[in-house]
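Following the same procedure, sequence and fold were stored together, as reproduced here:

>
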Amino acid sequence: MAAKKAKAGAVTAVTAARRVVALLRGVNVGGNKKVPMADLRALAAKLGFCDVATYVQSGNLVGTVDGEVDAVATQLERAIAAKFGFEVPVVVRAGGDFVRDLAACPFAANEPKRVHVGYCRTPVPASLAKDVAVYCKAGERIAVCDGVLWADYAGGVADSKLTSAVLDRAVGGIVTLRNLNSARAIAALLAGSTD
C-alpha cells in the first residue's frame, strides 16, 4: 500500500501504511452485539485494510492500513454502526507499539489469563493505580506503563470489583481489556511487521 498525499490546496500530509491492532469493546459477549469475525474482516477490507486477520470472536482485528490510529478507529466505529445497527467502541494501536507494550508488561511473571492489558482513546492517568486502589481485592494490582493500563486480577476477573465500569470512570473514557494470553496471540498475528 503506497503512502497517500493530500489533494492540492490542502495541507500536505503523508501517511504510510502500517500494521495496526483494532480492539472492539464488548462484542459477542452473552449473545449481545453480535459481530461475526468474517464480516468484520470483510468490512475492514472494504475500508482499505490489507492483510486482515482476526483472533477469536471477541473483536480483535489486525491489518495494514493508511491513517492515524484515532481516525482509523472512528472509521471502523462508523462502519460497524452502519452495518450492524449498534455502536461499538474501537481502540486502534500501531502494531509496533502493541508489541512493545507487551514486552514492558509489569506483571509478565504472573498467570497470563489473569493479567490484562487495557487500552482507551483517552490518556490513561498516571494516578490510576491510586485512584482505583479502593476497588482492588487482595492481590489485585494496577499499573500504568507508557500510557497503557495493566491489571493483575490475581483472584480472577469474575468476582473482582475492579470492573470495566470502574476503569471507564477512572480513565474518563472507554477501556477495552485483553488478557495476556490473547494479547500475545494478537501480537503473533503481527509477526514480521516493522512498524
